Amino acid sequence: MKIISKGIKDLDRLLGYLERHGYTFEEGTHAVLLDHSEVSRFAIIKDGETAALALVHYLSPYYRVEMKDIDDEDQYLQELLIIRRSSEKWRIPVEDVIFIVFDDKLEDLLSSYDDDYPVSDGEELVTHYLKHNRRGKEVLKVLLGRVMDELSGG
Asked: How far does Cα 12 stand from its chain's mean position?
């Protein structure tokens, strides 16, 4: 087992890249945090075996509504519905993705992976989030500790 931290800008592109190399994935635990970011845990699977676990802290298109700083609750809900009905779908990590890797081949694939933001204002979204959420780059540390406890039977 090896723990790898890697900067990823487009979670969906990464998952597609892994699929093209014969991996599948299952999204496990998912939560929307009070700061409107999201966290997910993915099992990355090859030939029926877990090759890695990925811990991801990211923004989705819904964060655009938060950036508008809307005070009126009805207007806020309307903006969320507009995003929901749109075709815009992406997930941009706001901190390095943590991989708990059990497969050396996957480690090699991850080391050669590179991407860019899925939307033109991706960097602006991440910068805004981190400016307004001082501890936004510390979420996965806590989650990693919990997963390590779970893996060790604790």
From this structure: 9
In this prediction, residue 105 carries a pLDDT of 92
Q: Look at phi and psi of residue 86 and say left if phi exceeds 0, alpha if psi is from -120 to 50, else beta.
A: beta
What does the pLDDT read at residue 11? Answer: 98
Dihedral sign for Cα 102, 9, 91, 24, please: negative
pTM assigned to the model: 0.90
Distance (Å, whole) CA 75 – CA 59 = 21
